[in-house]
Design goal:
Helix content is 73%, strand content 0%. It is an all-alpha fold.
C-alpha cells in the first residue's frame, strides 16, 4: 500500500462521510488504480520485448504475466467505497 492508498483508507474509516465525500475518495482511488494498471501494462510490454529479444527466459516470466488481470477500476472503487459506479 502506498502513501495515497493509506490516506484514502484512513479517510474511508471515518464514520461520518457523506455520499459526496465517499464519491470523491472513490474517484481518487480509481485514479490510483488506473495509474498502477498503466504502469503494469508498460512493464508487461517491456518484459515481452525483452523475451522476444532473447534477453529473458520466457518460462519464468510468462507465468507471472498470465497471473495479472485487467482491473475494472470503476467497479473496484465503487465496491470499496460503497458508491455507485457512476459516482466513482
Amino acid at each position: 500500500m502506498d502513501e495515497d492508498e493509506y490516506l484514502i483508507s484512513v479517510a474511508l474509516n471515518r464514520r461520518h462521510l457523506t455520499e459526496g465525500q465517499k464519491a470523491v475518495l472513490a474517484n481518487e482511488y480509481r485514479k490510483i488504480l488506473s495509474e498502477k494498471a498503466k504502469k503494469e501494462r508498460v512493464e508487461i510490454a517491456v518484459t515481452q520485448r525483452e523475451i522476444n529479444r532473447g534477453n529473458i527466459l520466457s518460462d519464468t516470466v510468462t507465468d507471472k504475466m498470465n497471473e495479472r488481470h485487467e482491473v475494472d477500476t470503476h467497479k473496484e472503487a465503487s465496491y470499496k467505497f460503497k458508491v455507485s459506479e457512476r459516482k466513482s
